[in-house]
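Continued from yesterday's entry.
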Amino acid sequence: MNSEIIQNLRSDIDELDRELMVLVEKRAQLVLRLSEEKKQLGMTDYDPTREQAIIESLYQEFKPTFSQSEIEVIFKPIFKASLRIQMDKKKPA
């Protein structure tokens, strides 16, 4: 493998990283919309059962490549950031 191939692969990875962040940002916007709907129904933002169901579902789909703990390491910070975004939105300006 020569250095040009390595650089091209790294560039492809960098692009995927940016695409991942765009998707995480879109997820955050959906979370804010969900938070508003839940508020109208008197529901809380934090739902640990839902988080665990997401992790389990992803594990079942991607377990040949990722362990459940690896999926948790990837998604727990996203869940935490989502909750923080919801709390920040509710703070008075």
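--- second protein ---
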Amino acid sequence: MKRLVILAMLAVVSPVAACAEWCDPPIAPTPTTPELAHDFREEFKDEFDQYFRDASLYTACLDAERVRVFQEMQNTTQRYERFLNDSAKWSPSE
């Protein structure tokens, strides 16, 4: 029973996990024919420019998420070490 209370307290007191940001992958421009590319040059140029902007934002988002997860892993490791140290002191009947 005491273990259940401790686990419940750990769940309530533990730090709230940061919300993961969803990183939207960029959508590459669709291949086209040389004739269409010629006729719609500016539109295709805009599509490619948009793709490279989106790809840059996407990789920055992935980098930020990697940093966040790494920090979360460090925090969780510290919490787990504290749990192991504390639980080593508990008697088997607790």
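The first helix runs from residue 2 to 13. The helical segments are 2-13, 34-39, 41-87. Will compare against the first tomorrow.
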